[in-house]
Records
---
Amino acid sequence: MKTLDLDAIKAFVLTAELQSFTRAAQALDSTQSAVSLKLRRLEQQLGRRLLERTPRQVRLSSEGAAFLEAARELIGAHERAIASFEVEQRRLVIGISHQLVSAELPGMLRRMSEHDPNLLIELRAAGSVEIAEAYDEGKLDAALVLQPADKRHNGEKLYDETFAWIATADWQPRSGQPLPLSTQGASCSIRNAAVRTLDQAGIAWTEVFIGKGAAMVGAAAAAGLAIAVLPRRSAPPHTIDVGANLSLPTLPTHEVVLYSALHDRRSRAALGTLAAAFRSLA
């Protein structure tokens, strides 16, 4: 068998993880057609169909699933070999909104580490306003924040995040009582947008729990204490979107925006990998 094309292997791993030729191409700074061609040639070389393609979805075949872990190990070994000549460890300080920290984060960090083993990632989580301020003050190399869709920005929009009214499946409001909410407090733009929609709809509300981060806010909802305003993907197990059942207003969409003024190759490549991973959440 001929030597495998490492670029094609990397394209396969990214396409499998991001479930999209387009997002893989963005991560590789390439085009969808170029990525597709690399993968077809790889499949021909292996004599195996690695991906199942439909107009709306890309997913692993059974043979692709069997090949994926070996492909990851091969790319990781290749990147470590290259990094062995890098004597300088690059520190990348990234600020991220609490609302964006979810179960997908470990996989994203793994991709960045595989891409650049000598990259030291420092991650700081806080509210979007705090993260934006820290970035403006030069304390961060990059910032991932949530912004209202109607707000102008000079960052890179990654995708639109949709929010929902999250509670346990059997949760019911108490008659005559204001709607109990679990939020991140008055400094949170998501909380403020949500309560504005309640005020406009004439629905009384009260905060019964304040925490920092989607996990803490969601925990109060999972405990049956309140309704949390969360991205649907961040909803804790055994909770659902109760908005329609309770006739609650539709929540506004917020854009996930990446800010960075870094231009060196290593940093931009690492941020490109992270950006592609977040786009896959759309």
---
Amino acid sequence: MDIIGGILWPIKWVIEAILVGFHSLLSMAGMESAAGITWVLSICGLVVVVRAALIPVFVRQIKSQRKMLEISPELKKIQDKYKGKKDQFSREAMSRDTMALYKKHGTNPLSSCLPLLLQMPIFFGLFSVLNDAYADRPGVGLLDTRLSAEFGSAELFGIAPLGSSIASSEGNVAVIVIAVILVVLMTSSQFITQLQIMSKNQSPEMKASPMYRQQRIMLYLLPLVFVFSGFAFPIGVMFYWFTSNIWTMVQQFIVIRNMPTPGSEAAQAREARLARKRQRKGIPDPEDEAPGTVAVEEPKKPQRQQPVSKQRAKKKK
């Protein structure tokens, strides 16, 4: 076993356990064990488990992005301080000041890429599992010889093997067409996800920062990566990637709608929705009330108790 194989071994074992678990549930539900759609849905189940496990990492990513937004003015001051200085001493000093700022606030630019980076071992592990099954090799765990043979020979719609790619299709038109459709869907979903973040969930300060310009470059660069990688990846792996992109798109939509970045277009839209909701319910707008004032009920004046002699005189009457 080579070094990469040794690193991927435990990841492949977990992937096989999840795939076999979902495959068993679907088979018990009446789906055909060797059908391509059964294995595709098992791959979708793998996506759900992986992305659900990464939700805490995603929350950390959101917090890190908010901190990056808060320190952007300080970051700009550092960049302005060393602007035009291209000597090695100035570059090292700028790098030290920037890293000290990140350390002080407990954030860094790589935090925004953390969910993607953590998914890459899963992605390559599935790629290895599918390749082994397609080559008639048993898995390392619960994917035994029979299940591995079913997985390797499973065909989507009965015409496109899940383990085949455009590069290995040998002129199979069905494989090429399905792979191209998946590449288009993967690219579109990734582009829409990034676009909704950049167009609706960025504050004016963030849009004026150099980091925003880098994000715009990545917005158009990542689809090219999908286009070129789509020729080499098997159909089953591309289903994983596409399903994961759909999860990301929905997740980002929920976050942008309910927890937008302060000062962004999404935050203004949320405030407008809340204002309309308060208006329908007849609740006054908090901004209309004077700050620091609280409505206090006027205390009732206590009744004066009459002297005992007067009370006795009333009783005699």
